[in-house]
Amino acid sequence: MPPTDPNYTTLRTQLATLTTEAFRPDLADIDRRPTLDIARLMNDEDATVPAAVAERLPEIAAAIDAAAARMARGGRLIYAGAGTAGRLGVLDASECPPTFNTDPSEVLGLIAGGPSAMVTAVEGAEDSKELAAGDLTALAVADRDIVVGISASGRTPYAVGAVEHARAIGALTIGLSCNADSALASAAEHGIEVVVGPELITGSTRLKAGTAQKLVLNMISTITMIRLGKTYGNLMVDVRASNDKLRARSRRIVALATGATDLEIEAALVETDGEVKNAILVLLAGVDGHEAARLLNASKGHLRAALQSATTPTP
């Protein structure tokens, strides 16, 4: 985009108003400071991020409750962003199957420019609202779904376009940005604006803004899964044991939940084909694997409800 292009002037004016793009004269000599001083400075800056997130907890909680309600009815959680924001969405989505045993189609991450943009910048991809609409159309997004637009600036066309398209078809929309009065928050049903202030390196929103976005995405996915019954207390009872570490963790989770012996745990896991939640129900309720599966299905996967049902006498 050449300097003579009217769009260039407009964009430059927009960026000048963003807190995340602000220049800090007090750090103009940062390249001349000792490494330890810079490290301390970065650490001090990062320490301010949780407080900024805390200010937005009511909005975050409201968005999560709405998202959990949609997912309980079969909706999908879909993140959409460009650059660092898009990568963070893809990261959060990719960690849900092993952590909460979700199907890969239940939580998805879209990044402007497609999968290759995870490691290589795709020029111009973030500037297209139409590209976002096309990506969501390819997923057949419907009114039961949730679309979370992620953008540090709050103006990225791809993120804004994703939210606008999703909202127009009735999907639940959440806009996560790091600037106040953002276009993204305005476009979404649930706007979350975590204002972290200017970055250590001017405009490098992979720093505080990226940290803030990661913290909020952690909350959105984790608490939504808690609401959906994917945990028992603070135990990951829906963990998918796909490697040795997770298999060991599965056995430890069953032990923590039940206090059973190793032999009892192994027998319960064999009885339930390795399903942690089912094995816990077998041990705590004294039912077989088939009945455990039936009870969990009837309780829509909520272990506490299944336990209550198993131990409540039939009238």
TrEMBL record:
Could you list this entry's UniProt keywords, alphabetically sorted.
Carbohydrate metabolism, Lyase
One Pfam family in the UniProt entry = GKRP_SIS_N
Report the EC number(s), separated by commas if there are several: 4.2.1.126
Q: Name all SIS domain ranges.
A: 67-230
Which residues does the entry assign to the active site, renumbered to this chain? Answer: E95, E126
Q: Is rRNA processing one of the keywords?
A: no
Record-level Gene Ontology MF annotations: lyase activity
The job of this chain, per UniProt, is described as:
Specifically catalyzes the cleavage of the D-lactyl ether substituent of MurNAc 6-phosphate, producing GlcNAc 6-phosphate and D-lactate.
Q: How does it assemble?
A: Homodimer.
The similarity annotation says: Belongs to the GCKR-like family. MurNAc-6-P etherase subfamily.
Descriptive protein name = N-acetylmuramic acid 6-phosphate etherase
Which gene underlies this protein? murQ
